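Fold this sequence, please.
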Amino acid sequence: MRLDKPLAPNTTAILSFHELTIYATVVWCRDGECGLHFEKPLPKADMQGMLWITQNREKYARICLESRAQDWTSGIGD
């Protein structure tokens, strides 16, 4: 995980990624990155989804934009 500001080890963190909200404890933090220990094991499908999003950022952004546009034309959301 990349950060703008360092987090202190042993503090509680909330990772919000796509539709996931996951509680964790900061294990280490250096050079703009940190390691997290999750309260519960993450399901394999969630891990694969996060990996796909990070490896396909442009495609993911386009999918999100198209989805919001479809919702807007259907009167869903803001």
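The longest strand covers residues 20-30. Residues 22 and 39 are 8 Å apart (CA to CA).
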